[in-house]
Amino acid sequence: MPAFRHVRKVYPDVKVYAEDRPDTPPHLQVWRPGPNAAPVDLVVTLGGDGTILHAASLFSHGAVPPVLSFSMGTLGFLLPFHIDDYVKGLEAVFNGKATILHRMRLSCSFHDREGRNIGSDVDAWQVMNEVALHRGSSPHLNTIDIYVDGQHLTEAVSDGMIVSTPTGSTAYSLSAGGPIVHPSLSAVILVPICPRSLSFRPLVFPSSSLITLRIGDKSRAAAGVSMDGRTVHVLNPGETVTVQASPYPVPCINRSSIVDLPPSAGDAHADSGAPCRLDGQEGVGPGKEDDWVRDINNLLQYNATFRSKALLRYSRSGSESQGPISMTCIE
């Protein structure tokens, strides 16, 4: 891989590990997570948003090293760099020019009816996007008692509940009607999934809040618990999951780290003289502005006007209308 060869050539003293996988190249040292894992100063991911979620899950017992994420062609909120920018991205990190956004994680634990911990690895659950309780294949709604800092908030009768971080606010939480929250904020988002009551709206709590979700005794269905898209547990009536802010956020390196760096040898854009853009468009690329603002516009098409593709093509042509436009359909 070019990025690996570049590290070996330009930074020969850097020790490179690879995750223990069946497809790990034989010439790389294998890294295994756990309390006795080798210390890591930087995590580099190649892939999509799910790759970053997986990388963060490998550091469940403590702090996460800075994460430098490269897209392999897909678009995502956690992918500030395209793989073509690996030279500039690595240069910013090794020269101490990188800027960091600490993305909040959630710490979760499970308890039985008597309040005893369930599971031997309960302290290992650190969640970057969301914790979701859902009725799964059951035809019945869940009945969930919600407590905030020990105070009973409400009894939710719904398909389930989502407890999300600001980073996860543009994932499952958004699809369920939750708010979009800037990832630099420290907050816990509570979103019902298809609630029976129309007045049950999403809530945003400070990160100091302790959220407890208890499956009600009269619930006709158990609740499956998924974390960042992984099904991890089933809660029966009387059992609970407790969610609070983790002391170990995920430090993600911003794209703005590479804006002020001069072109480097081997950079795919070094000799072109053109601004570097992830989306292939002309013009000045993302810079000192907020990467998140760029993302909600490019990825979510935030507040995009509903317009005909024919009209958009017409407006780009620069021609002036000579009369009314007749339309038979709108795409």
Proportion in helices? 10-25%
Residue-averaged pLDDT, rounded? 82
What is the number of E strands? Answer: 19
What percent strand? Answer: 25-35%
Tell me, briefly, the overall form: globular
Low-confidence regions: 264-288, 319-331
| Structural class label | alpha+beta
Biggest sheet statistics: 6 strands, antiparallel
Order of helices and strands: HEEEHEEHEEEEEEEHEEEEEEEHH
What distance separates the N and C termini? 42 Å
Task: Kindly provide the radius of gyration, computed on alpha-carbon positions and rounded to a whole number of angstroms.
Answer: 23 Å
- Name the strands of the widest sheet in spatial order: 8-7-18-15-10-11
Number of helices: 6
Report a brief summary of the structure:
The chain is α+β, with helices and mostly antiparallel strands.
Key terms:
331 residues, alpha+beta, 28% strand, disordered C terminus
List the helices and strands and how they pair.
Layout lengths: L1 H9 L6 E3 L9 E3 L11 E5 L1 H9 L9 E5 L9 E2 L3 H9 L5 E4 L2 E6 L14 E2 L2 E5 L7 E7 L2 E8 L1 E5 L7 H4 L11 E7 L9 E4 L4 E5 L7 E5 L2 E6 L4 E6 L4 E4 L37 H8 L10 H9 L14
Parallel strand pairs: 1-2, 3-4, 4-5
Antiparallel strand pairs: 6-19, 7-8, 7-18, 9-12, 9-16, 10-11, 10-15, 12-13, 13-14, 15-18, 16-17
Structure description:
This protein is of the alpha+beta class. The chain has 6 helices and 19 strands. It is globular. The C terminus is likely disordered.
